[in-house]
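Q&A FORM
Asked by: J.P.
Topic: structure of Glycosyltransferase family 92 protein

PROVIDED:
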Amino acid sequence: MKLLIEHQKLDNIVEDVFIEPQILYIPSEEPLSPRRIQMIKRRKVMLIFIILLIIFLFYNSFKAMNETIHFETIESDPDLSNEEELETPLKPGILIDPTRKLTRKLPVSHVYVTSAYYYPISKSLGSNAIAMAMVVDSINFNVDNATYNVVGSNGTHTISSIATSQTEGVPTCRYTPAMAKTKTVENITKLEMESNGVRVEIPFKMARYTAPKPVIICISPQFVAEQWQIFLMHVHVANRWVLFLGSFKNTSYRFGGHLHIYLTSIIESFFELMKEYEREGYLTLDFWLRMKFEHTTTPYFEPNENIEWRNQAGAQTDCLLQYKEAAEYIAFFDMDDILFPKNYPTYLEEFSAEWALQPDATSVFYGRREHEFVKVYFPAETLSQFSFIELVRSLRSSPTVKRGKVVVKPDRYNSTWIHFSNNESEGTRYDIVSKFPINLNCFRRTIDNPTLIHVQRPLQKHGNNNITKVWKMKFGPLNETIRDHDVKGIEEDIERIRRISKVSEIAPRLPSSDFYLPIVFKCYYDAFYDNAFDHRKGKHGCPNADTCALPQREEYKCVHSHAKYFSGPHMKPFTFHFAKNSFWSKNI
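REPLIED BY: S.T.
REPLY: Here is the structure written out as tokens.
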């Protein structure tokens, strides 16, 4: 279309030259004067110069347009298909083409393999199974049920197999989380992905067959984490003391949950505090890496900016695959989603009672009620003044119950999304309140009460709390059941931890005021949540705040998850990337 416009301009110029009153009707008997002949020659030369200049300018403009991958948005004929449109050749590397993130088809779909696990025996996957958590470019072709060629070797035998997959993404993001599974050789020592004779070796781990506790709570990835008060609330509630016998250690963790926490970045002193809780057996820390493609010979869109919420669904699927054969139940919560058992003293008993009512349920779904609380600390603002009793007293409930989170039986789940698995049956759902009938083998059981205490809005005792000016919500008295003896027991447990010498040394260095919370909230608000808070109708793309500016604080350094990144050779239709040897780093 641009070419046509330029030609039209050229035609106008030519017309302007020839329609001027320089076309002379000269009687044959009157010869042209030398002055008139010279004027005509000058005009011819000028006309030729103008034509050549236009051709030169047009040529250079067209050449420059061909050498860049930044395009103007040009209206095209709606009757033409993508294949009929003229595409400019693309260079290898990151592609900057924001208007076509969800439409531009590329020569290769790039795949980042988050993790791969080997199962000698699995209740749901079978013997000698491989399961992989991946992120896949989903635009080039439909990857909802894509298959992958897998080669497994053990030194003496090699087996090639086809891995089937399922996805958990949203259609507004270019990259989607996927889980692929297959059978392989016994006692595998080498795992490869193959396409058209080209192979790349992928690292894998043995799946867990023991767990610290029967209930694992998978916490979504933390980035620029600084809210240590919410962490203390969750870690002590989940680990409220109770005696476990039998296959689990004879320990006395009350509610009986073990936190598996993924970290992308975190304030250094907060990280040191978490490490102390890990040494005490309360939690397991795990790396959650930013995705990087070390080398490519084809173009790709930046994956971290084009995946839903830092690939949170991928982290939860990884956690599921890790503990699939080890845990009785697995919960997928955020750090600010806190569950107090209502009818039984432990999570194990509470969840078992729910499944006893509906034995075929694939998951139990808990709603999330919004709460606010006051961070209870005094001018010293250290861990030494933290009071769980005062924190609970400051809790206020909202009538608003948001979309919830699930607890699953791991042998009935192979992957999950942020709130539940998109691969669960979408048919009838049993609701405890309405007693809606069940007629499917695969369904999600909804719990009306209790709900998760969603403490997403912490208030500073001595701060301006500007977040409340945007996030306007009504709160009233606490509307959840929290038993007094549990609150007292948790307070005693916190005091025990405080007496640990290393914890006492860390406490004064914990952040005393919010810095990243308002920045992240603003990013999330602009990226997605504005409609939820003020009902502003806007078109949102991929829910993601990866491009938000997060400054490094001088007084509070951060710890990041890092690794050595690798890219496989050029392969079609998939080119694979992965990381090995993860470590904690203080360098950005």
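FOLLOW-UP: The chain is about 25% helix and 25% strand.
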